[in-house]
Amino acid sequence: MLNEMEELKELKNNPHRDFYNCRKVDTHIHAAACMNQKHLLRFIKKSYRTDADRVVYNAKGNQLTLKQVFEKLNLHPYDLTVDSLDVHAGRQTFQRFDKFNAKYNPVGASELRDLYMKTENFIDGEYFATIIKEVGSDLDDAKYQYAEPRLSIYGRSPDEWTKLAFWFNKHRVYSHNMLWMIQVPRIYDIFRAQKFVPHFGKMLENIFLPVFEATINPSANKELSVFLKYITGFDSVDDESKHSGHMFSTKSPAPQEWTIEKNPSYTYYIYYMYANIRTMVDCRFHFVSQCIH
């Protein structure tokens, strides 16, 4: 580096500040991946020791205890290792979105993902919340480390925000060193094919209308209003390797007119997300200002 020695000298002369005590923020991490693999393994074993006989899972109407879940998978937590969990992304996941998503299934078992990494399940996401709070406690102890984990809102139904806010408030998933991002997967084509939504406009409505309602009338949406105070932004996510044939232009159909099962382009998603987010920010700023005055 051209100024390496000068920068090194400046660093040495800077009192009480180095890499370890400057504040660092992880701004791109999914909540389901905020813990390291050893932390997850340790929590799974701990939960089995304390909750083996607790009913924690609903398998198509059949309620199972934690012990029965592991027996169904032909596993015992004592035998698990970080290698057998297989939740660490490596070179084999590069440009392979399918393999990357599979890493969210401990031991390749979707049952364990539902139990330990979901906000909606038989135990109302208790294990997931506990893991995140432990991560938040570690960040608090570290003092100079912060995180901005992502939670998903899909736009499949209008009650997603209500359920997520319920989970957040019930388990008090708060940390001074942690705020939250909302990620929106670009999977309209899947929802349309399964007839969850009649058009793209309905998906946008499911994503943003509850936020506007909680902003305008927080007393009628108390849990969501509290949750929104900890949200810092939105993101759009999907398999980046997929080709998009549609070119967004002034001739593109409006969201309510996009009724085909084909997924809109990335630019189409971003334009309408930006339009709603910008309006939402102005709306929230206006109502907060009115409350202050």
TrEMBL record:
<dbReference type="InterPro" id="IPR032466">
    <property type="entry name" value="Metal_Hydrolase"/>
</dbReference>
<dbReference type="Pfam" id="PF19326">
    <property type="entry name" value="AMP_deaminase"/>
</dbReference>
<dbReference type="GO" id="GO:0003876">
    <property type="term" value="F:AMP deaminase activity"/>
</dbReference>
<dbReference type="GO" id="GO:0005829">
    <property type="term" value="C:cytosol"/>
</dbReference>
<keyword id="KW-0546">Nucleotide metabolism</keyword>
<dbReference type="GO" id="GO:0046033">
    <property type="term" value="P:AMP metabolic process"/>
</dbReference>
<dbReference type="InterPro" id="IPR006329">
    <property type="entry name" value="AMPD"/>
</dbReference>
<protein>
    <submittedName>
        <fullName>Uncharacterized protein</fullName>
    </submittedName>
</protein>
<comment type="similarity">
    <text>Belongs to the metallo-dependent hydrolases superfamily. Adenosine and AMP deaminases family.</text>
</comment>
<dbReference type="GO" id="GO:0032264">
    <property type="term" value="P:IMP salvage"/>
</dbReference>
